[in-house]
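ok so I'm stuck.
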Amino acid sequence: MRSEELLAELYDKTLTGNGPAVLDLTRQGLDQGIGPETLLYDALIPSLEEVGARFERGDFFVPEMLIAGKAMAGALDVLRPLLAETGAATIGTIVMGTVKGDVHDIGKNLVNIMFEGAGFQVIDLGVQVSPEKFIDAIKTHKPDIVGFSAFLTTTMPMFKANINALAKSGLRDRVIVMVGGAPVTQEYADAVGADGYAADASAAVARARELLNQRKAMASA
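replied:
not stuck anymore, here's the structure
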């Protein structure tokens, strides 16, 4: 199979969420000498962007996004160490976690896959993440963005508690704070003082890019 054909097939199989085929094509591509960056940026990422576009149009729904995301995640497991060896640049780093008191992670995990697929480095802290753990991770990894996820209305107040903890530790101005989750709204994000909110995984990536570009523009002004 020619390189162009393989990349087109990899794009299509990612779009339809065929995990075994995506993994097989990724390995075939590497065996043929196609670079990991080419596989990622010429097939996998464009495919996941199309998944996001179809979701926004109402042609795809959450199950299709999850299936495509999981298919891509398998390829990323193979490509991640190779990309690290080549020194491939990441768009930015994001620390992500479900807030203290909340054990839901399906939405967070889908967002993580979309971020990784878009070229971000994701540090996933898991669920039930305390403000102290977020602070430790920010000090260790020095991310561009920290993401707080909540699925329950009873745990949403942890957004404000986390932001207050960041301010108290002197870290608030160093990171972009994004929040999300099923019950979260733009109004609530504004009320707690978050920098960004997104209603779904696809929108989260677009918003993160927008916020990063704004920060870079301000820094260079």
